[in-house]
Amino acid sequence: MLNFEFYTPTKVYFGKDTHRKVGEIIKKYGFKKILLHYGGGSIKRIGLYDQVVQDLKDNGIDFVELGGVQPNPKVSLVRIGAELCKKENVEMVLAVGGGSVIDSAKVIAISALTDIDPWEFSAGNAKPDKALPVGTILTLAASGSEMSSSAVITNEDKLLKRGFNSEFNRPLFSIMNPELTYTVDKFQTGCGIVDIMMHTMERYFTSTKDVDLTDRIAEGLLKAVIRAGEIAIKNPRDYEARATLMWAGSLSHNDLTGAGRESFLRCHQLEHELSGMYDFVAHGAGLSIIFPAWAKYVYKHNVEKFCQFAVRVWNIDMNFENPEETALKGILATEDYFRSIGMPVRLSELNISDEKFEEMAEKCTHYGKRVISGYVPLGKKEIIEVFELCR
Ligand code: NZQ
Ligand code: ZN
């Protein structure tokens, strides 16, 4: 096990009706003026907006609001949010929504306290040294942003999607009521399941040995998510399934499943090029296409780990005569599962051709400045080969 630091300062309020405490919670922290930030209208359709607004008023909390966050959240709205916070002397940002809203809120909270343009943080040209506190009411189990140290923003002019990590990205508190996810449709539920699994699997497929505890936490989480995912797709109002997905989403990406080992989210790097280039690609749908291709490209370089995954997560019998066969079966089982919950597993299903492979690969290497490390280091040529396997 490698040395590690583990810091998850976000206070979690989990369970039924917890969102009804939002005003009381904010009041306890002493914030008097907040920005209420949300997406394209789902929170109004499910009645959450009215409840939150009423609760803020009942607790004497003044607020300004900014809706309209789009999936793959745009830097242009972040700029507007940051200016609004400055003008209105906002003390904290409350994000009500999924990962896109939370990420937008995080970068607004950082940009509100500086004159640096928000994109500079995403582009890696500037590092935050302070931020307004962010609280969240999560409405979609997927990104893990409600406890994570990252924020992912899209620059619509440059067709670039970039994430950056900072301890200033960790929310102060997150309210998680699984019932708020009953209205998430099958497709977004599927995207969430894939994203949750991938946050754990990306950390799992590492070269670090002797991380048995972390491996077993990861495998247990994956098995619970696979089962809960099947149930939630069939019955969107199954509380236990929705609760499992919601909590797993947070634990998958709050660094627990990476403790003690090298972890780098490789498939995520390739996926961000995909949804950065093609805005209609949802993050989870991009990942369900990239993972099987990446895994097939690299598995022969760590057959042992892929066998462990196949046997422990998918209950596949170990073929000691031909371990490669077992390893491949685990990858195919994952692909079949993604397909079974309605996720695409090939680019052709999204009508995406090879036209932009070269450009996406170039961007992914930061124009030749980096190689994606892993079982097989991925430079431009190798990234194109992985994209080819996605076709
Ligand atoms: O915009 P609204 O109207 O709210 O609708 C959203 C959106 O259309 C809808 N939705 C959310 N909650 C709902 C609901 N619909 C019905 N009922 C509800 N309760 O779902 C759609 C997708 O929302 P979005 O927030 O985009 O999805 P998700 O939570 O999957 O977030 C995806 C974003 O997070 C980033 C992704 O790259 C992507 O941009 N990620 C952020 C991470 C982080 N900060 O740690 C890590 C992840 O790896 C990921 O990269
Ligand atoms: Zn993700």
TrEMBL record:
Keywords: Oxidoreductase. Residues 9-178 form the Alcohol dehydrogenase iron-type/glycerol dehydrogenase GldA domain. Gene3D superfamilies: 3.40.50.1970, Dehydroquinate synthase-like - alpha domain (1.20.1090.10). CDD domains: BDH. Pfam families: ADH_Fe_C, Fe-ADH. Residues 193-387 form the Fe-containing alcohol dehydrogenase-like C-terminal domain. The keyword Hydrolase does not apply. GO terms for molecular function: alcohol dehydrogenase (NADP+) activity; butanol dehydrogenase (NAD+) activity; metal ion binding; methylglyoxal reductase (NADPH) (acetol producing) activity. It comes from the Bacteria. The keyword Oxidoreductase applies. GO terms for cellular component: cytosol. This is NADH-dependent alcohol dehydrogenase.
